[in-house]
Amino acid sequence: MHHVAAIGFDLFNTLIEANAGALNEAMDRLIQSLQKNGLAGDLNAITVSYEQAAVSHIEKAHQSGKETHNRFWICDALNHHGDRLSPDDSRIAEAVDAYFLAFYPNCRLIPGVTEILTGLKGQYHLGLLSNFTHPQAAMTIIDQLNLTPFFETIVISGDVGYRKPHPRIFDRFVDNLKTERGKTLFIGDDLEADVQGAERSGLIPIWITYARDRKLPFTSGKFFSGGELPGKHIPRISAWHELIPLLH
Which of 74, 105, 77, 106 is nearest to 88 (CA)? Predict the structure, then answer.
């Protein structure tokens, strides 16, 4: 891979991981925020409606490639029980912020990330491309883990309006990096979004199986889809020290 000029990275389960209880804590914070504002009478019913709304929006996003924000999920869940709220209601925005507060203390770097990024910076153009509905929360997590200085561009699906594997978000990523697709690696854990998406967009995919091999909880919870195993032409690494031999 001596022709490689740039390397792109996914975020969750590639560079960082979340504690197992983060999703439950996030849901608790969401409900507490709604309760405080008088919007969650029947807790069980609201929780079920939110999960159903989330599944529905994720399935639609999967089909269309268009990103949807969490505020629409919450709005649909509440309106299902008779409320007449707009997704732009300030109380929904407050609940979204409460939800993501759970992730800030519960995210950590995967071992070897700082070392590999330090070694690659200056030798390659580096970029980050993540599917994340709430861009402000994504940037807070990235900043607090001291990842921001490593990257020339950080592209979040919630800003673009499309999510991996849609080609539009890969187009934005490559344009920002100002490199050729055939000279750009993309490393991620999700077979469909990262591996297939990158390959279809003309990038060179590498599949990182750190989370999969260690059976870590996936941040997407029940919505995670494993996808078909890639062909042998797709390089695979399980830990970050395995990347250097591939590059050389």
Answer: 74
Q: Which of 247, 18, 246, 7 is nearest to 150 (CA)?
A: 7
| Tokens standing for residue 48 | 């079920």
- Name the DSSP class of 231: P
DSSP string over 132-153:
-S-HHHHHHHHHHTT-GGG-SE
3-state secondary structure string, 202-217?
CCEEEEECHHHHCCCC
Show the CA angle centred on residue 115, arms to residues 22 and 236, nearest 5°: 75
SS3 for 85-132, per residue? CCCCCHHHHHHHHHHHHCCHHHEEECCCHHHHHHHHECCEEEEEEECC
The series of mean pLDDT values per 10 residues for the chain, 248 residues long, is 90 95 92 89 82 92 94 91 87 96 96 98 97 97 98 98 97 96 97 95 97 74 54 92 93
Q: Strand 107-109 vs strand 125-130: parallel, antiparallel, or unpaired?
A: unpaired
Nearest alpha-carbon partner for 222 in 100, 55, 46, 72 = 55
Three state DSSP letters for 14-54:
CCEEECCCHHHHHHHHHHHHHHHCCCCCCHHHHHHHHHHHH
Instruction: Please name which of 189, 246, 177, 245 lies closest in space to residue 215, comparing C-alpha atoms.
Output: 189
Distance in angstroms (rounded) separating the CA atoms of residues 181 and 120: 18
pLDDT given for residue 42 in this prediction:
73
